[in-house]
Amino acid sequence: MARFSVFALLAVPWLLLAGLVSGDAVSDLEKKGRPNIDAMLAKSKTCTKANLKVRREWGDISAAEKKSYIAALLCLMEKPSKLNPTQFPGAKTRYEDFVVVHMQQTMSIHNTGSFLSWHRYYLWAFEQALVKECNYNGSHPYWDWGRWAQDPEKSPIFDGSDTSLSGNGQKINHRSSGIAPAGNGGGCVETGPFKNMTIRLGPVSPAIDPAPPRNPRSDGYGLNVRCLRRDISNYLTSRYARTQDIAALITNSRDVLTFQNVMQGAGGGGFGGAGGGGIGVHAAGHFTIAGDPGGDFYTSPNDPAFWVHHGMIDRTWAIWQSQDTNTRIQTIAGGTSMMSFGGGGRQQSLDDNIDLGIVGDKVYKIRDLNSIVDGPFCYVYE
């Protein structure tokens, strides 16, 4: 699939401003906005302090909590798919049901007005599956890119221990095929809880060298058995996903269109890059994991690290919203299709529906998915 830039944003001023921010400025912004979230919580008809969940960073949860989350992931990977096996022969497990839904809707959930709300609901639905189908009793963790920006491989997320989400791929000779130079892996993941994970769906838009075997079906839904591959390095996180970069994204975005476009910038590369040369935290996280399926625009949720990455995407949006809840909760900008860049196509509406099909509990309007303490949601970040 050809990759393209969607909005011509100038990234250089953002990078210069980012350099002026230091320390854990993101946590400071989170604390600054928390009273506004608490005020919303007090008025919520569906969320109370009694059932409020707290989402924490992977490095801050205990070893037992990490193992509980990992066990729930592995459980979901063992439960049978609920999809039609003739239509989706590559989806054998309940976990892969989530991958298929992302594949089906990829072109309408990136560089669109629903990008943020869709992925918020998607992550929450995944968390609900872990809880209801695999007896997970925790909240969903996230990956603070800035905290581990200088050496993600040595972070507790990717260090390959039994409390990690597995380590890097085996180091092999390979070339760059994404928006970063070739990393320190490229081969099959051989450490940690997911070292024996089987990938079946895709590829659809691979960004790894050597390329994975082609799927027997052009839509990527065929059965295509292979290993989980990664190519982790610090190239992107140490340049574009530091704490100061995240803080600059939050503080310099005066409207949601700017926020989501800068966040999705991919330097003209993959993952629906909206920045005309800038690399945002969305692409930086995905291409730090890289590999197969992590670097595939369509099938990236098939890598277990996808979920903690998008936990941080959601956290960053929630912090941005909390700075001015009067104007930043019920606001939307962008079209309804990734192909309608440049202002073409219908604009997204707060009254548009989001339907996750086989993995969602119901169809919601976008306006019902914009607050973390209202509608179906009841959680905060810490």
TrEMBL record:
Annotated PROSITE patterns: TYROSINASE_1, TYROSINASE_2
PANTHER family, sorted: N-ACETYL-6-HYDROXYTRYPTOPHAN OXIDASE IVOB-RELATED (PTHR11474:SF125), TYROSINASE FAMILY MEMBER (PTHR11474)
Residue stretches making up the Tyrosinase copper-binding domain: 110-127, 303-314
Signal peptide limits: 1-23
Pfam families (UniProt xref): Tyrosinase (PF00264)
InterPro entries associated with the record: Di-copper_centre_dom_sf (IPR008922), Tyrosinase/Hemocyanin (IPR050316), Tyrosinase_Cu-bd (IPR002227)
Keyword annotations of the record: Metal-binding, Oxidoreductase, Signal
Species for this entry: Cercophora samala
Protein name, per record: Tyrosinase copper-binding domain-containing protein
GO molecular function ontology, one term from the record: metal ion binding
